[in-house]
Each structure stands twice: as structure tokens, then as C-alpha cells.
Design brief:
One of its GO terms (molecular function) is hydrolase activity. The chain is α/β, with parallel strands linked by helices. It has eleven helices and ten strands. It has a six-stranded parallel sheet with strand order 4-5-3-6-7-8, sandwiched between helices. The protein has a two-stranded antiparallel sheet with strand order 1-2. The longest helix is centred in the last third of the chain and has 27 residues.
Length: 357
């Protein structure tokens, strides 16, 4: 259904003709579905759909109140990035890796989600598996022939890195001064991880560029959610700049290795969460028709600094407050977009996502 909507979208923009149907090729005389069949997901809470242990935030009310109606391990009131990318590809959202032994095996044909909330490419404050370990899990599945070579080549990997490495680094070091040099290590490790995923045979990879860290409620709370932090936003810019440069270099290196991989130049797609967040925030600011409504303000916040969304004290007292209209919010909690936020972000990722088809 999602696909039909995308087609409509495409038709409106390009005035329709069958040559604009990128997921259908007419080779061998007939219509052949070439769209990706599986999604493998790596990274953090922007992509996790249930891997983190049951004590973590996403497993407490009011998380999941919009979808599926109860906490599901998603760090949102509803759908997250992974769900929107899967729907764009026309497949079901892949099952969390930690559920693999408990679910109907036929569900694994849609791929698997190895993302764990709170993680980074390096170890963070969370004790969940870092991205290296997540890729190790994926590699084991491949070695156990859960997926064939052909399965993998017609698959997409989604890699989310939203900044936990930088949060952990700042906590450990007490300041941001050393952060710029740390960015290089993060990008090098990320690119190494992408090469590993590619080396295991995955056809196409979408990797997120950092969202504007300085605009996350966690950071803007000191200004009552009015001002983004330019320091944190310049960290974002540096990270994204280096990511783009490294991926360009990677493509150049691969093209030097000969024409054997004609698709390699299109196999890596950046999902630019920075511009998508900024565009979505601007859109919501104007859409509400109520300029006093501040889209930087999260829907669900702790009553005081020590508490966060979902925290419940003795005798079941809620230590958080909830907005009246999560469906018009952009941020759900201090870090994560709401379902409405992700939906808006997703609308600005369409042109990048089309390159995965
Ligand atoms: C798994 O799902 C498939 C397809 O929905 C169904 O045909 C099959 O009976 C299920 N297997 C089990 C063990 O439930
Ligand atoms: C990831 O975690 C594993 C297991 O704890 C650890 O051995 C490895 O050094 C970590 N990798 C990175 C890049 O931090
Ligand atoms: C925060 O933003 C307001 C209005 O946008 C501006 O007047 C104020 O100077 C800013 N404060 C800081 C500390 O940047
Ligand atoms: C590209 O190749 C050069 C030379 O072999 C190497 O030093 C560099 O790390 C490679 N870059 C990437 C992004 O793989
Ligand atoms: C606009 O938003 C503000 C703050 O959320 C609210 O107090 C006010 O009632 C809203 N006005 C209208 C016309 O919706």
C-alpha cells in the first residue's frame, strides 16, 4: 500500500510513465520484481524495534501508546525509522534478532533487526552489543545459512548511528574539546563496519548522517527548548562532512578496482537525518498554524531533571508528563522523534530511499 502511495508521489512529480517504475524491470519479456526482499538493520534506538532488554525505556508505558498500543521496545510512541524504511521497500518490518528463536521462522524471510538502543560503533554507557558485535551476529546467521547468497544480494542494510558514541565520550571526558579528533575514529570504525556488511554480500546499504544533535530536547532543555546548541550542531556538521568524504573515497577506491562492480557506486546511500530533521521541524512549525507551538519541545518529559519519560516512582506515581497531542509533536522524548516526527522525517528521505530500489 505504501508503495502505491510512493508511486502516486512519483507520478505527481514526474508525470507518470512506466519507465518511472524503478522496482519493476521488464527484462526477460515480463514484469519482474526487482525491489529488495529483505532488510537487515544495525545501530541504535532510532532503528531498534525490540532488541533491548525489558528493563530499558522502550519497554515502559507510555512508549508504544500510538503503535502497537503498548510498549514494544521501540523508543517512540509508535513507529520508528526502521518501520518506515521497511514500508518503503514494501516488506514487513524485520523481526528483532533477540526474538529469532521465539518467532515463526517464516518471518525471518524479511530480514532481521540487529539494532540495540543506546549503542554506538564503540562501547557506550549502554551494556548492549556495539555495532561490531551486531555485525558478528549477522555474520553467524549468514554462516549458518539462514540466508543464501542470492537472498543477501537482493537485500538492503540500514545502519543507524545517532550519536551515542559522542554522548558517552563527553560523559567520560567531561567536556567536548577532544570531540573533533574522536569524530575521525568514529567515522573510520563506521566505514570499516559498512565494508564488512558489504563484504558479507548485502546488495545495498543506507547509512544515516547525524541528526542535528544540538536541537535534541536533551540539549535544548537548558533554554526551555528554544535554542539549538551551535556547539553540538557543529559536531554534527563535522561528523557528516567526514562521513561524506570517506564514502566518496570508498567509492573511488572501489571504482579503481575495476569495472567488476558496476553497481557499487549506487550501493551506498546516505540518509541525511540532518536536513530531514530540519525540514520536518520547519514543516511542523508552519503546519500547526499556531506559531506559539514549539516543535523542539518533546511530548513526554520527566517532571524534574532527574526523571525521564516512562519513569514511575513508588506507589505507581508517574514522574513524567505527557503532551495532549502526540500526533502533532516532533519529539517524543528527550532524544527520539515521535511517530509523527519520524513520518515527517521519512517524507524528506524519499528521494534517497528511491536509490535503494
Ligand atoms: C508460520 O507462518 C506461515 C505463514 O504465515 C504458516 O503457514 C505456518 O503454519 C506458520 N508456522 C507455524 C509453526 O506456526
Ligand atoms: C565491541 O564489543 C566487543 C565485545 O564486548 C569488544 O570486544 C569490542 O572491542 C568492541 N568493539 C569496538 C569497536 O569497540
Ligand atoms: C535564544 O533564542 C532567542 C530567540 O530565538 C534569542 O533571543 C536568544 O538570544 C537566544 N539565547 C541564546 C543564549 O543564544
Ligand atoms: C582507500 O584506499 C586507500 C589506499 O589503499 C586507503 O588508505 C584508504 O583507507 C581507503 N579509503 C577507504 C574509505 O576505504
Ligand atoms: C497554540 O499553542 C499554545 C501552546 O501550545 C496553546 O496554549 C494555544 O492554545 C494554541 N492556540 C491555538 C489557537 O490552538
Amino acid at each position: 500500500m505504501e508503495k502505491q502511495r510512493d508511486l502516486l508521489f512519483l507520478c505527481l512529480v514526474l508525470s507518470c510513465s512506466s519507465s518511472f517504475l524503478p522496482w519493476v524491470s521488464s527484462s526477460e519479456g515480463g514484469l519482474e520484481k526487482v525491489s529488495p526482499q529483505r532488510l537487515f538493520v544495525f545501530g541504535d534506538s532510532y532503528a531498534d524495534t525490540g532488541n533491548t532488554e525489558k528493563l530499558s525505556g522502550g519497554w515502559h508505558p507510555p512508549y508504544g501508546s500510538t503503535f502497537p498500543g503498548e510498549p514494544s521496545g521501540r523508543f517512540s510512541d509508535g513507529l520508528v525509522l526502521t518501520d518506515y524504511v521497511a514500508s518503503f521497500l514494501g516488506i514487513e518490518s524485520p523481526q528483532p534478532y533477540t526474538w529469532r528463536n521465539d518467532v515463526n521462522k517464516t518471518l525471518l524471510q524479511h530480514g532481521m533487526n540487529f539494532a540495540f538502543g543506546g549503542t554506538g560503533v564503540f562501547d557506550t554507557m549502554a551494556r548492549e552489543p556495539n555495532m561490531t558485535t551486531q555485525i558478528d551476529y549477522f555474520q553467524s546467521s549468514v554462516e549458518q545459512n539462514v540466508y543464501t547468497k542470492h537472498d543477501l544480494s537482493s537485500s538492503v542494510a540500514l545502519v543507524s548511528l545517532a550519536g551515542n558514541d559522542y554522548a558517552a565520550f563527553t560523559m567520560k571526558n567531561g567536556n567536548q574539546e577532544e570531540l573533533p579528533s574522536f569524530i575521525t575514529s568514529v567515522i573510520d570504525q563506521l566505514v570499516y563496519n559498512l565494508k564488512r556488511i558489504k563484504g558479507l554480500g548485502v546488495g545495498k546499504i543506507a547509512v544515516t548522517a547525524l541528526e542535528p544533535l544540538g536541537c535534541l530536547p536533551q540539549i535544548t532543555t537548558v533554554s526551555s527548548f528554544k535554542n539549538c546548541s551551535s556547539n553540538w550542531n557543529s559536531i554534527t556538521r563535522l561528523h557528516n562532512h567526514q562521513l561524506r568524504r570517506s564514502l566518496q573515497e570508498l567509492k573511488k577506491n572501489e571504482s579503481m578496482m575495476g569495472p567488476s562492480s558496476p553497481s557499487s557506486s549506487s550501493a551506498l546511500v546516505i540518509l541525511d537525518l540532518h536536513s530531514a530533521f530540519v525540514s520536518a521541524l520547519n514543516m511542523l512549525r508552519h503546519q500547526s498554524g499556531n506559531l506559539s507551538e514549539n516543535p523542539l519541545k518533546p511530548c513526554c518529559v520527566g517532571v524534574t531533571e532527574g526523571y525521564s519519560c516512562g519513569n514511575v516512582g513508588d506507589k505507581g506515581v508517574k514522574n513524567y508528563v505527557l503532551c495532549n497531542h502526540p500526533e502533532t509533536s516532533f519529539f517524543w522524548d528527550n532524544i527520539h522523534p515521535s511517530q509523527n516526527g519520524w513520518h515527517a522525517v521519512y517524507s524528506f528521505l524519499h528521494s534517497s530511499l528511491h536509490r535503494l530500489l
